[in-house]
Amino acid sequence: MSIPAGDRAAATVHVAVSIEDAFEVFTTEIDLWWRHGRKFRIAGKRPGRLVFEPKLHGRLFETVTFDTRQRTFEVGQVLEWDPPRRLVLQWRGVNFRPHEKTFVEVTFKEVPGGTMVRVEHRGWSNLPDDHPARHGLQGSAFSRMIGMWWGELLTSLREHAATDE
Amino acid sequence: MLRRSGLVEERVLEEDARVRVYGLRRAPFEDLRSWVEDVETLWTGQLAAFKEHAERTRPPLDRSAKSKKDRRSP
């Protein structure tokens, strides 16, 4: 059995606003629409904010307030910046190893009645050849790839990986 | 080798320790598929939230298409 084309995940949405507005909302207003909760934000229920620096090499980071101290977690970095049509982010979860990277490409296309926004999240082909995720047979490696999102999934995959090993 | 790869699992029958039963494990294949499915589900949810916020805070395209200048005015 060959490894499925599991390197990329894609999602698309039609939004009834102009391409300029769609791009602006997606980037500079990310904190206003990005879902809340432990599954989606490092902050969980603590006070925190997602910040997208709208420029090439800009960062996407989350600030979280623990008691009185504020900490910053970098999630992404802008690798390509072509407003209002396209951007590419390097995406790293907080629990990634240094060499583990994924990439998120967001494209905006003018269509009748609005803008089509497509997100493609590419993953493990960027990992070294000897990385277990490349062989697709162990859960732990790719469970780390999305990092901040994997509340429940991380746990189940870790358990699964532990029983494999 | 198949056993090391995690593709098959080995079971020893209680009744007869000499017998090894091998079965295909579904989990590794399902993990591969589930990575993509889960990422797509999560992004679909985020994009729905994005759409809701964008359409609530920005003018509908039809109106903005007529005059970009006008849509900025209250």
Description:
The complex is a heterodimer of chains A (165) and B (74). By secondary structure, chain A is α+β, with helices and mostly antiparallel strands. Chain A is built from five helices and seven strands; from the N terminus they run E-H-H-E-E-E-E-E-E-H-H-H. In chain A, a hairpin with a 3-residue loop joins strand 4 (69-82) and strand 5. Chain A starts with 7 loop residues before the first strand and ends with a helix. By secondary structure, chain B is α+β, with helices and mostly antiparallel strands. Chain B is 62% helix and 14% strand. In chain B, strands 1-2 form a two-stranded antiparallel ribbon. Chain B starts with a helix and ends with a helix. The A-B interface holds A 1, 3-4, 6, 8-18, 21-22, 25-26, 29, 32-35, 40, 113-115, 117, 119, 121, 123, 135-139, 142, 145-146, 149, 153, 157, 160, 164 and B 5-7, 27-29, 31-40, 42-55, 57-62, 64-65, 68.
Q: List unreliable stretches of 5+ residues of chain B.
A: 64-74
Instruction: Please tally the helical runs of chain B, counting DSSP H or I stretches of 4 or more residues.
Output: 4
Return the average pLDDT of chain B rounded to an integer.
Answer: 70
Average pLDDT of chain A: 77
String of helices and strands of chain B: HEEHHH
- Can you write the helix and strand succession of chain A as a string? EHHEEEEEEHHH
Spatial ordering of strands, largest sheet of chain B? 1-2
Tally the beta strands of chain B. Answer: 2
- Let me know the number of strands of chain A: 7
Biggest sheet layout of chain A:
7 strands, antiparallel
User: In whole angstroms, how far apart are the ends of chain B?
Assistant: 69 Å
**Rg of chain A (C-alpha, Å):** 17 Å
Overall spatial form of chain B: rod-shaped
